[in-house]
Amino acid sequence: MRTVTTRKYLLKDPQSVYKEKCFLFLMKFIDAKTIQMDRTLSELDLFVLQFLRILERHTPYVIISGYVSILLGRSRSTEDVDIFIQKISQEQFEQLYADLQKYYWCLNGDTLNELYDYLEEGTALRFAKPNTIIPNFEVKLALSPLQQESFIDTLDVITKQGTFHISSLERQIAFKRYYLKSEKDLEDAEHIEETFKNNLDMRKVYAYKQRIEKSLS
Predict the structure, then answer these.
(1) Burial of residue 142 (number of CB atoms within 10 Å: 0-12, 13-18, 19+)
(2) Residue 217 has what pLDDT?
(3) Does the global pTM surpass 0.90?
(4) CATH no. for residue 180?
(5) Is residue 3, in this structure, part of any structural domain at all?
(6) Residue 6 counted as domain residue
(7) Which of 59, 108, 155, 190 has the most CB atoms less than 10 A away?
């Protein structure tokens, strides 16, 4: 996607703008914690949904970062899908890993004890389809208080093919705008804010901003 960054606005090529406006009419909040999406899922969406169906059999999860904006209509590509999971025992992880191995391989290695240690240390485990590297899933334990809070205010994105559990929109905007800060992340935040401007609580965005800045000081 071609973009030109100005001081205040992100200018996109007309085709991307048209696609994103079309997606807007296919999404709506049906309650405070649920978005209904009527669009046809992309190949990437179906790829993600297949992984989530395995993951949710073993642990709660929440999708964070770039893929959230893509799911919600932003026209861009991604190499990875970032996911937080809640703390699990080594036995639970062994069961999860056994299920994942049927369809994916882990880029970090294949020794169970080593992989579990990585998780507990806060290192993301990367999973991809056999003989591929991209796209992949980055699965990480929610360890810090800010990460753990991602599970408190999750949103359900309901589609005909399945449900995605994502981080709250206000949290997404704050972390992309005030923590990650790359051009791509700022564009993601802009897209979410513009698409859901009538559903956002900007006081929450400001509160997350303050907490992020405090954690970095």
Answers:
(1) buried
(2) 84
(3) no
(4) 3.30.460.40
(5) no
(6) no
(7) 155
